[in-house]
Amino acid sequence: MPAIVEVRDLTKSFTRGTESIEVLQRLDLDVGHAEFLALMGPSGSGKTTLLNLIAGLDQPTDGSIHVAGLEISAMSESQLARWRTRHVGFVFQFYNLLPVLTAYENVELPLLLLPLTRSQRRTQVENALALVGLSDRMSHRPGQLSGGQQQRVGIARAIVTDPTIIVADEPTGDLDARSAHDVLDLLELLRSQLGKTIIMVTHDPKAADSAQRTLHLEKGRLVLDEVRMPREAFA
Amino acid sequence: MNISYAGSPFGFDTGLAELGGWLAFVLSVLILLGLVLGVISLVPFYFTLLAGEFTLFLTQNFGRGFKFLLISFRGLRRNLLRTSLTYLATFVLTFVICVIWSVLTFIDLVTTERETDFKAIVTERYQAPSQMPSKYEGDIVEAIKSLPEHLRPANVEDNVMTWSFIGGSTDPKVRSMENIIFFFALEPKKLLTMQYEPGELTEADVESLRTHIKTMEDNPRCVMVGPDKLKAMNKRVGDRIKVYTLGIVDIEFEVEIIGELPGDRMSSSAVMNRAYYYQSLQDYERRTGKKHPLEEGNGRTLNLVWIKLPNKEAFEAAAALVNDPAKFSAPAIKMETASSAVGSFLEAYRDILWGARYLFLPAVAITMSLVVANAISISVRERRTELAVLKVLGFQPWQLLLLVLSEALMVGALSGMISTGLAYYMVNIVGGGIKFPIAFFPKFMIRDSVLWLGPLLGMVTSLVGSLLPAISACRVKASNVFAKVS
After folding, report:
1. Among A149-153, A211-215, B236-240, B327-331, which stretch is predicted with the lowest mean pLDDT?
2. Measured at the alpha carbon of residue A150, what is the angle toward residues A148 and A137, in degrees to the nearest 5?
């Protein structure tokens, strides 16, 4: 499987007062195309920091990150913002939909940053909402949707730009078991049907079981790399 | 309101204290009125917002800018209470600023010297109220006639008007606002040539005034009274009234009201043919066998003389003659332009006007900015996560800055527009102006320029107030907040 994310010698440190704290220490990682990767580890292990760096939300202290051949660790903040719009889809634990916008408008948000016509935007939004099974909820506002439905709108927003990778931070953390299962199935569908690369941070071992591969981090280092057979292998 | 210029024995000017109280009262009324109008105008405010949102919804195909603006409009719906309170505060403050600014601009206008068509006033030099002998009129006319031809008006007599002040009451015992009346005794024909400014009256008013002047000349007991005064006295055109004078010994007038004085400036005044006044003084002499006290010595029946002069040079030449103590010495008199006379009159209010212009108005504008800053800061703090999510999705900092600023600008512009629009409508069209007891201006009108100044003021103060919160919004670090939101 060709690597779509290549992390080399990645170090990230923060300064607190006069003390420098290394959150990630000389980390190497390859994530393949259409791979579903779960990042696990205790609080403070560096999993969210790693996710931030791969998603272009922060700059490493040292080392490099290539995504689909582009070195994002060398990009400026505004270049990263533009890159994120095109190449990264985000799924949040608390959905983070704009309460004053409808489901349709929330999903359309990232597309407003791209040079698309209204009809192109409409097609993409409708496809994304259809994919998550919410075609009939387009004009609903977040307050009118259940938690599971809101998360599915969040996923539709993440895939609407047809991104290279999808990053999800505890996507099932705020959901009941059934909704969590639906969301994980949906993520797996995105991987298997659309070939999306998914990187998910989770504390939930059940959620991690949905992924093909689980990385365990501790104190900024990779301590375990578990690879499972993809679901289609059992089909 | 009567303003006393005489200081109290303790050096405390009671007139100014009274004025201070009156200004505080006016300010309170303005704020209260602003609040009431503001609450009422919440309906058109939200209607405009919804209409704007609907229009943007329909026009969103025209470009992504329309879509962003639509998001800003929706943002205002997020917390209706806060949006309403921000709107109300901006509305009231804009309302107060615009009304006071109108008053100050009006005062500037009337105290600015003209370059042509000078209107000069001659009064007694050293005493107030001014009292001059009636023969001064002829002497002044002669003095003006002695000017070189290019400096004097074409017809000097037509350009000189005298005023004698006659205050009286229709009730000899109990005096009140309902029965007190104040007359300018003058030559009726001067009403057309001197009393009103060119263009001040409509054609119909001029025609009606011409008829009334003729009647007053035929029957000197006929008078004209302003509509507000008639209303206050509960009198009508056609009524006959007896006026017991105040300060003019043993003179009473029996007059017939033949018409209403046109124009706003004269709405609370009245005019009488001066011939009737002089006749009454002669009647007194016939009745008592001695001169009326006002005609003793040189006489003191003339209070003020108006002169129209073609230009500043003519005014200066005429003033040199009139101010000459060798020509006019008993009493000495002075000639000044109408605007400088008003300016001299307003000298007593100088500190208050200065304070209103340079302290009060800026203080209100700063308060407006602080109110907006406070509201937007709270809004930004509440939406920090949301703004961070937008940044995570790829929104650039300047786009977040515009998003926050545009919300504040919309509230500022709308409140400024509705506030000044309503102030203009209520004051100018419904109320016909605001009455101020300063000099002899009957009413102040809201200036037309307020209609664009108000929205601009609302926008600028909103911009200033929202700038810091907006900058803080666009500086949200995506990575930090992403960790928090997750």
Report:
1. B327-331
2. 105
Only one residue has tokens 């569908």, namely: A189
Structure tokens at A122: 């409409």
Burial code of B356-381, b = ≥16 C-beta within 10 A, e = fewer? beeebbeebbeebbebbbbbbbebbe
CA distance A95 to A171: 8
The predicted-structure confidence for A79-88, as pLDDT tens digits, reads as follows 999 999 999 9
Candidates B363, B450, B406, B481; CA nearest to B73 is B406
Q: Which two tokens stand for residue B430?
A: 């419904």
A66: β partners = A6, A71
CA angle B255, B256, B259 (to 5 degrees): 130
3-state secondary structure (DSSP) of residue A186 = helix
Beta strands, E only, A159-212: 165-169, 197-201
Contacts of A57 in chain B (CB under 8 A): 392, 478-479, 482
* Nearest CA-CA distance, residue A165 and chain B, Å: 13
Q: How remote is the C-alpha of B276 from its chain's centroid?
A: 34
**Please, which contacts does B53-61 make with residues 24 or more away whose CB atoms are closer than 8 Å?**
B60/A118, B61/A118
* Cα–chain center distance at A138: 23
pLDDT, tens only, B114-142: 656 678 888 888 877 888 888 888 888 88
Sole residue written with tokens 């403070």: A44
- Using CA atoms, how far apart are residues B479 and B459, in angstroms rounded to an integer? 33
Tell me how far apart the alpha carbons of residues A141 and A103 are, in angstroms, rounded to a whole number. 6
Which residue's structure tokens are 């270049």? A79
What is the pLDDT of chain A when averaged over all its residues?
88
B117 DSSP 8-state letter:
E
- Quick one: CA dihedral B106, B110, B111, B117, positive or negative? positive
For the ranges A130-139, B196-205, B413-422, B429-438, the lowest mean pLDDT is seen at B429-438
- Give DSSP secondary structure letters for A9-27: EEEEEEEETTEEEEEEEEE
The residues near B390 (Cβ < 8 Å, ≥ 6 apart) are A109, B399, B400, B403
CB contact under 8 A, A94 and B486: yes
* Whole-angstrom distance, CA of residue B475 vs CA of residue B456: 28
d(CA B51, CA B59): 12
DSSP E strands, B268-414: 270-273, 304-311, 333-337
pLDDT < 70 regions, chain A: 1-2, 229-235
Structure ipTM:
0.88
Amino acid at B437: P
3-state SS, residue A72 = helix
Distances from the Cα of A66 to the Cα of B1, B40, B108, B479, angstroms: 83, 59, 69, 18
Q: Which of B68, B393, B486 sits opposite A170 (nearest CB)?
A: B486
Q: Are residues A90 and B64, on separate chains, in Cβ contact within 8 Å?
A: no
State the CB neighbour count (10 A cutoff) for residue B207.
10
Find the helix or strand (DSSP H, E) in which B199 lies.
none
- Option in A57, A90, A105 nearest B479 (CB): A57
Burial class (CB in 10 A: 0-12, 13-18, 19+), A76: exposed
